[in-house]
Amino acid sequence: GENVEQHPSTLSVQEGDSAVIKCTYSDSASNYFPWYKQELGKRPQLIIDIRSNVGEKKDQRIAVTLNKTAKHFSLHITETQPEDSAVYFCAASKDSSYKLIFGSGTRLLVRP
Amino acid sequence: GAGVSQSPSNKVTEKGKDVELRCDPISGHTALYWYRQRLGQGLEFLIYFQGNSAPDKSGLPSDRFSAERTGESVSTLTIQRTQQEDSAVYLCASSLPVSDTQYFGPGTRLTVL
Hints:
The structure holds 2 protein chains of 2 kinds. By secondary structure, chain A is mostly beta strands. Chain A has no helices and 11 strands. Chain A has strands spanning 4-7, 10-14, 19-25, 32-38, 45-51, 56-59, 62-67, 72-77, 86-92, 101-102, 106-111. In chain A, the strands form 2 sheets. In chain A, strands 2, 4, 5, 9, 10 and 11 form a 6-stranded mixed beta sheet that branches. A 5-stranded antiparallel beta sheet of chain A has the order 1-3-8-7-6, with no helix packed on it. Chain B has strands at residues 5-7, 10-13, 19-24, 31-37, 43-50, 65-69, 75-79, 88-95, 103-104, 108-112. Chain B starts with a strand and ends with a strand. The interface between A and B is medium-sized, with 24 and 25 residues.
């Protein structure tokens, strides 16, 4: 079955710097890749997603890139702010099932 | 509109007891998912309901776990003879028909003593 690996497990950046989180997936049939942000004690919130027919997607300070050949995708956050501090999860799914297979998460700390 | 809701928000039980967790999806969302999140870890898929199709139970960790869904509305996840390793947050999500985007509920934090 599908396996999603996520790195790094923790990331500390200075406010204003950029942060990059990377994920790899194993099932070449996966075609949907969302990113969720989870603040302490809260539910996961979708922040951006990308489908396999697109190589890059951007929404204000966040962007996601997808390399289907290498089977990896990345989250980029620019001009980080303290409120970006949270755990970020990548995930992958495919049309036949839609169930999300999640990475292990990255704890991002933005230092003021 | 109203989001996905779950109850109870917290449940403390003794080892060996049965528990039932409830999920109310967003109205009109025919797909419903259950995930488990152990402390400090990622989300593990448990089960998926889509309309009247047979559920995908491939993520259920043992036969102590089961779930039901009434039509396209409420779902209950039942854990029988709870064990300490069942302690986790159980999250429910729903989505529109033939859609990728899943919206999560607040979760039920289960503690098995």
